[in-house]
User: Fold this.
Amino acid sequence: MSFLLDVHMQYQCQFKLSPVLLVFICSHCISVYFENDAFICDSLCSVFSPLFVTWKKVVNGGEPRLRGCIGTLEACQLINGFRDYALTSALRDRRFPPIQAKELPNLECTVSILTDYETANNYLDWEVGKHGIIIEFVDDYNTRRSATYLPEVPAHEGRLYCPF
Assistant:
């Protein structure tokens, strides 16, 4: 089984973990799920950080298309977090049907370790491609809403600034 690995560390990683290793862990997790195999990294380390796992699928040599992306803004043990979110983003992202075993050779995995949260001074106080953004507000029905955009999302969408 082969995977196309696209390694992006969205922030300067202060941890002594190889980005290739983190992508391998995510790829291994989904392979283990489909092959009912054993997870090999259970006690690798105990580093904690917020994280996201993104799956993209390449079809007919075209641009990779989003297939799933889920993570957590709360710090969790990276190894367990990547194992859990590799599967959650592959199988439970409500925007897409679950990834199937036959798709594995065409998948790219990107892992994002989030660090150094800071509060913006205003809505323009961030750099596209460098900062992710978390938008939080209460709607007209008094329901709390939020959205998270990893640093590469606005850049991929061609945004030079936040339009709102």
Summary: The CA atoms of residues 138 and 144 lie 4 Å apart. The chain has two domains: 4-113, 119-164. The helical segments are 19-35, 78-91, 152-156. The radius of gyration is 16 Å.
